[in-house]
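Bumping my old thread because nobody answered last time. Still need a sequence for this structure:
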């Protein structure tokens, strides 16, 4: 998202200096650029907070405008610590601009607190529907253990009718995203992946290959569910059902854009029925079941299953999670916390979450 704005495309005056501060790019190089006092800084909360805490030559004291794009997500609680760090460094006299495609409880409370001091504008809705009419929405009911084979069959059937249409596949975690990408590549579906564990430069390169139609399939976490505008996307596949209905809307919104037609297919296991019902209630639309040829799924199940197992073996999990843990430990140290204690708490929380998930799945049966 931070990489998206292109001021050269807007042909603004050549005296405007823009600097982008995002993770995945060397902090020292960014710090040097920020010390030159750019007119505009586009940043992710985490990286901007890191610079404010570690760089004495960079300041926000002269900021006139603060813009929060995707304000619903930035104020969801996930970035509270970073937002607090940033707001502490901002001058009291400034203009705040918040942009959001969805209105959350937090934004509603912000409206109430601001009272008359806030100008609020909500773009008129074309219809009562949350998703557009040009979007064909379907679901595939399948057993959890065979879901990847069903996914491959959906792709095969789509490719039989449309060789050139771009496909976006969404899944829930970085690990699942990487494994699914490796699996589909090995069974003949060339793709690129996009998730937070991939270095920034590699992410931008993957996105460029997809946007240029060099590769026609992108597998991503919800990091790609907002802000991307790729007109050639004709099919969105939900490998996992989003737990929050609004995330479903953001995902399927990557297709059927600007009046074009598009298709969204969600893979639903018996554990996901309640999530599907919540989505249907939110979008005020019943999804239609897409029937898949079970015998064809059976033919490819063994290949997909074996390939996925090999992908798990080839994925060096230690290295895969090492960078994330290093970044967390740096953050804890900056906050004056004991990194060993915090890591132990994180491990305990992870085990508790895993146990709770297993219990919930058993109760849903």
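Sorry it took so long. Here it is:
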């Amino acid at each position: 998202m931070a990489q998206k704005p292109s001021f050269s495309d807007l042909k603004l005056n050549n005296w405007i200096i823009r600097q982008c501060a995002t993770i995945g790019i060397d902090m020292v190089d960014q710090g040097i650029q920020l010390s030159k006092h750019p007119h505009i800084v586009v940043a992710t909360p985490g990286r901007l907070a890191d610079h404010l805490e570690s760089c004495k030559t960079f300041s926000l004291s002269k900021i006139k405008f603060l813009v929060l794009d995707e304000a619903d997500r930035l104020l969801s609680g996930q970035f509270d610590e970073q937002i607090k760090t940033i707001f502490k460094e901002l001058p009291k006299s400034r203009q705040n601009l918040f942009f959001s495609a969805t209105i959350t409880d937090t934004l509603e409370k912000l409206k109430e607190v601001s009272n008359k001091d806030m100008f609020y504008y909500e773009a008129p809705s074309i219809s009562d529907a949350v998703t557009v009419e040009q979007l064909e929405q379907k679901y595939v009911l399948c057993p959890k253990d065979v879901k990847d084979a069903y996914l491959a069959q959906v792709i095969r059937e789509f490719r039989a009718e449309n060789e050139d249409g771009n496909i976006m596949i969404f899944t829930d975690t970085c690990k699942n995203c990487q494994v699914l990408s490796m699996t589909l590549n090995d069974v003949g579906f060339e793709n690129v992946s996009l998730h937070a564990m991939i270095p920034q430069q590699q992410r931008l390169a993957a996105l460029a290959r997809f946007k240029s139609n060099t590769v026609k399939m992108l597998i991503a976490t919800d990091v790609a569910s907002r802000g991307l505008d790729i007109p050639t996307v004709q099919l969105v596949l939900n490998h996992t059902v989003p737990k929050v209905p609004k995330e479903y809307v953001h995902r399927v919104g990557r297709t059927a854009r600007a009046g074009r037609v598009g298709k969204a297919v969600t893979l639903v296991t018996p554990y996901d029925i309640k999530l599907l019902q919540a989505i249907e209630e939110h979008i005020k639309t019943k999804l239609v079941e897409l029937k898949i040829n079970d015998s064809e799924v059976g033919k490819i199940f063994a290949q997909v299953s074996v390939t996925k197992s090999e992908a798990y073996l080839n994925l060096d999990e230690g290295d895969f999670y090492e960078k994330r843990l290093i970044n967390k430990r740096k953050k804890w140290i900056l906050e004056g916390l004991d990194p060993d204690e915090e890591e132990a708490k994180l491990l305990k929380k992870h085990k508790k979450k895993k146990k709770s998930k297993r219990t919930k799945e058993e109760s849903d049966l």
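The two ends are 39 Å apart (CA to CA). Let me know if any region looks off to you.
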